[in-house]
Amino acid sequence: MADGKHSGALGAVYGATRPDEVAALYDDWAETYDGEMAAAGYRHPTICLALLARHLPRGSTPILDAGAGTGLIGEWLGIMGYGDVEALDISEGMLAVAARKGAYAALHRLALGGPLPFADATYAGIVSAGVFTSGHVGAEGLDELIRILKPGGVLVLTVKNTLWEGGFAARIAEMEAARLVSRVEETEPYVSMPGEAGTVPSRGLALRRG
């Protein structure tokens, strides 16, 4: 299935081909991002929060919001009883907006898809909403997130169908076969932005590290 066609900032970030291009586009979008995504009915943060709450006990710490953007999930994690939440994002502008919300114990300007400067088994939970999608991060971003997750910890993420069918599902299956992770929940495919015509469906996943 081909990716849908989007206009404006959303279309630009989906069409980006380099990490520096993605970062610059998000920097420019940061101040209006929350309002525009709310208008589009953006569902990924809600889905991820529900999956995390179902599979990771309240109070588990620390938590990494990987691809935190403006901090949509960070605010809610605190309300739900998850303390010591850290944010990771490629965009300095998005992290600046997240910082103003006061929801994060630390902010890390980093790109997913390569090595991360965190020790093995650092985080009890990791949330990555809307990151594994067109023009962003593919299955190459999984290994490092699993590495920095504590044994028994939970990684919650969303994956666009085009990535899922283009090698992501196969990589998850390899990790399961190697007992690196177990798939504790997978949602049915859903449209992440009902207000945007042509949005390709995604799915939510909850993975527990072995």
Structural description of this entry:
With 210 residues, the protein is an alpha/beta fold. 39% of the residues lie in helices and 23% in strands. It contains seven helices and seven strands. A seven-stranded mixed sheet has the order 3-2-1-4-5-7-6, sandwiched between helices. α4 links the parallel β1 (63-66) and β2 (85-89). The longest helix has 21 residues, at 19-39.
Along the chain, the helix and strand elements come as HHHEHEHEEHEHEE
> Could you estimate the helical fraction of the residues in percent?
25-40%
Note the gap between the termini.
33 Å
Strand % is: 15-25%
Number of distinct helices: 7
Average pLDDT, rounded to a whole number, is 86
**Which parts are unreliable, with pLDDT below 50 for 5 consecutive residues or more?**
1-7
Properties at a glance:
210 residues; alpha/beta; seven-stranded mixed beta sheet; 7 helices; 7 strands; disordered N terminus
Write the layout of secondary structure elements.
Blueprint: H1 8-15, H2 19-39, H3 44-55, E1 63-66, H4 72-79, E2 85-89, H5 92-101, E3 106-109, E4 123-132, H6 142-147, E5 149-160, H7 161-177, E6 181-186, E7 202-209
Parallel strand pairs: 1-2, 1-4, 2-3, 4-5
Antiparallel strand pairs: 5-7, 6-7
Helix pairs in contact: 2-5, 3-4
